[in-house]
Amino acid sequence: MTIKIFTTGGTFDKIYFDANSEFHIGEPIAPALLEEANVAFDYEIESLLKKDSLDMDDADRSRIHASVETDSSNKILIIHGTDSMIDSARYLLDIPHKTIVLFGSMQPARMRRSDAMYNLGVATAAVQLLPAGVYLAMNGQILDPRKARKNHRLGKFETTDT
Amino acid sequence: MTIKIFTTGGTFDKIYFDANSEFHIGEPIAPALLEEANVAFDYEIESLLKKDSLDMDDADRSRIHASVETDSSNKILIIHGTDSMIDSARYLLDIPHKTIVLFGSMQPARMRRSDAMYNLGVATAAVQLLPAGVYLAMNGQILDPRKARKNHRLGKFETTDT
Amino acid sequence: MTIKIFTTGGTFDKIYFDANSEFHIGEPIAPALLEEANVAFDYEIESLLKKDSLDMDDADRSRIHASVETDSSNKILIIHGTDSMIDSARYLLDIPHKTIVLFGSMQPARMRRSDAMYNLGVATAAVQLLPAGVYLAMNGQILDPRKARKNHRLGKFETTDT
Amino acid sequence: MTIKIFTTGGTFDKIYFDANSEFHIGEPIAPALLEEANVAFDYEIESLLKKDSLDMDDADRSRIHASVETDSSNKILIIHGTDSMIDSARYLLDIPHKTIVLFGSMQPARMRRSDAMYNLGVATAAVQLLPAGVYLAMNGQILDPRKARKNHRLGKFETTDT
C-alpha cells in the first residue's frame, strides 16, 4: 500500500518572506515532516497547487478531482488551506473506492509552535483506518465534510447541528 | 467522549539535565503538545510513572493494568518508552470493551526534530476510530502488539512474519 | 548594571494570525528568549511600540528618542524592524553617554528557523563591550548606522563604501 | 577578516541516541546555526574533538593549544563543554596576539529550547570587539577565565570574588 499525498498550498506551507514582510506559500514541507516523523509506510508526494485556500476556484478543484480520481493509490491525503477545505472536500464526494482525507493547519508548519505535524499524524492514521469516503482531519477530529464548518472565532473545525 | 491519557515516562518525556550531563524523565509534555495541536476533543491526562521503559517491571505493569481497567473512559492512550512497549501492551490484552493505544517516540518531544507530536496525532486518531482492543501507534503504523517488534537497527517498529 | 531593552515591533515579534491569514505584530518575545538564553545579567524590558518598521514616523522616533534619553540605564537595546532601523538609529545619534544597539531579525523569532535569538546574543555582547554611541547588530556584524544599508536582494545589512 | 571556529564537542553538539537511550556528541551543529543566523562575516569551522568536557585531558588541551596557535586567523572561537571550559581557557592564556573566545551551552543546540544559538551570538560579537586575550562567553556575560567559575547549582557561570 502506497499513500498518495497531494499538496495544494495553504497555511501549512507558508513561509515568512522578508522582501515584502509577508507570509507566502513556500515549497511543500510534507517531505521534511515525514522524514522527521520517521514513518515506515510507503508514500508519494505530488505538489498540485501553491494557493491560499481563499484563492481556489472551480478550475483548481477540477484539477484536484482529476488527480485524485486517476491516481493509482486508493489512499489519498490532501494538504489544503483551511478556509475552503470543506468546499474542496465536497467536490470530491462522488469519487468511489478511495479513502480521501483532507487536512491543513492553523499555524504554518515552519513556526516553532504549530498544529501541522500533529494533523499530519491524525490524517495518516485516518487514511489507513477508514473505509472509502471523504473526510476532514482537523483539531484531532475526523469530520464528515457534509456536516462540518470552520468556526473562525474559536479557530477550530466543528460538526454542524443537523 | 473523553479520551484518557496515561503517561509513564520514556524517551517521549526526556529532558537534558546539565547537572550530570545526561537525560532524565521530565514532567509530562503531553499537555503542552495537545495545546499546541489545538485539539477540540475532551481529554484527561494522568501521570502514572516516570520510568525508562527498560526499568519497568511487573509491579509497574500491574499498576498500569489496574488504572486502565478501572478508568471511566473506554478510549485510552498510554505514552510509553519504546523498548518495552510491546510487553506492556500484551499485559493489557485481557481488558475488554476498551480501545487502548500505546505510543511513544524515538526522539524526545523536547528536541527540535522529533517524531513525538506526529505519533500523538496517529494515536489520537487510532483511539477514536478503532474497535476495542490493544494497539501500538509507531512510525505512522497501527500494529497488533502480538505480532510486532522493535527493529533496533532501523529504529522502527515492524510486523513480525508470524 | 541593568540593560534596558525597548521593543518596537517589527519582524522579530511577528505571529501568524489565522483570522486573516497574515502576520501581525504579537506580544514581545524578548522575555521568553532571554529566559531560554539563561542569561545572568539584569535587564528591564519595555514595550514602546508594536509597529511594522515601514509604518514608523517621526512621532514614533521622537518617542523612542525621549525614552532612551530619559532612561536611567546607559546600556540600551532596541528591537526594531529592519526596513527603517537605520533611520531610527540615526535619529538617536545626538544622545550622549549611552551605548545604544539596535537590532531585529529577518525571520520572526517564532519561526522554527530564525536569526532572532542569534542577533539578541550579538546585541547584548555589543552593548556591554562598546563605548557610548549608536550601533546596529545584524548578520553577526556591528555596524555604524551612518555608513550602513540594508541590501534587500541579499537579505543582509552591509557597510556602504565611503 | 576570517573568524576561525574550532569545535570540541560538549553539550552544544549532543544528540539523543536511541540505541542506548542516551545523549551522545553528534556532528558539529555550528554550520547549520550560522546559516540559520544569516551571518555576513567569513568563517571557517574545524572539528578538533568530539568529547564530553569532563573527558578532556592534557593531550586534548595541547592539541587545542597547537591548533589555535598555528591558525592563520587571530580571531578564534572554541565551542567547548561547560564543565572544563575554564581549564581549557586557562591553558591558552600564553598565546599572544589572538582574541580567543570559548563558549558552549547548558542545553544541546538540537533541543527546542536551548541557549546555544544565543551564546554563539554573544561569542561572535565578543571575538570581533575585544582585544587579544582569552575570554568566556556564557549566560550573556563575557568573563575572564582566571576569575570565573561554573555555579552548578544555578547552572550559570559567574565571576569569583578573588
Plain-language structure description:
Four copies of one chain form a homotetramer. Chain A is α/β, with parallel strands linked by helices and 162 residues long. Helices cover 25% and strands 33% of the residues of chain A. Chain A is built from four helices and ten strands. Chain A has a six-stranded mixed sheet with strand order 4-1-5-6-7-8, sandwiched between helices. Chain A is globular and about 45 Å long. Chains in contact: A-B, A-C, B-D, C-D. Chain B binds chain D through residues 11, 14, 16, 18-19, 21-23, 52, 54, 81-83, 106-108, 110-113, 152, 155, and chain D through 11, 14, 16, 18-19, 21-23, 52, 54, 81-83, 106-108, 110-113, 152, 155.
Number of H- or I-type helical stretches of chain A: 4
Cα-atom Rg of chain A, whole angstroms?
Answer: 15 Å
Largest interface: A-B, 35 and 35 residues
- Unreliable runs of chain A: none
Extended strand count of chain A? 10
Strand order of the largest sheet of chain A: 4-1-5-6-7-8
* Oligomer designation: homotetramer
Could you tell me how far the N terminus lies from the C terminus of chain A, measured between alpha carbons in angstroms?
Answer: 36 Å
Question: What is the element string of chain A, with H for helices and E for strands?
Answer: EEEHEHEHEHEEEE
